[in-house]
Structure prediction request, 147 residues.
Amino acid sequence: MAVKHSEPERVVRILNSLLRSEISATESYAQALPRFASDVEVLREIAREHGQAVSDLRAAIQSVGGVPEETSGVFPSLPPKAVQGPARVFGEAAALKALKDVEERGLGDYQDALKRLNGTATDWISDTLIPAQIKHISHIADLLERL
Prediction:
């Protein structure tokens, strides 16, 4: 995904923030997936889509001359233990709620980024990334209802 923008440094900061969020999401799913006995395929597909978003965001950052982040850093999301712990102690419902929180936070991050960006990045975020987050939230809500 090539991103065109007149303020590359600002765009890189915003996209790197989104990248850290996506890396954090992939880490959360990696911690949670082993805890599930059912519905693993749905969750694996969501995790795969987050992995693709990580790759796409890295490419977008590079396309404007930036250096993509490698880790989630100190990104303010649920730490892996917040997903791992509840699954171990309270079961799948608590882990799904934690993952839903991750997805909702990601949706908010994308919506905020739309307000701060312009150019091709906004089309990509609004046409691809936001719909994916909404779909993830819906899938997790469906899984929660079935428990």
The chain has one domain: 8-68+78-146. The radius of gyration is 15 Å.
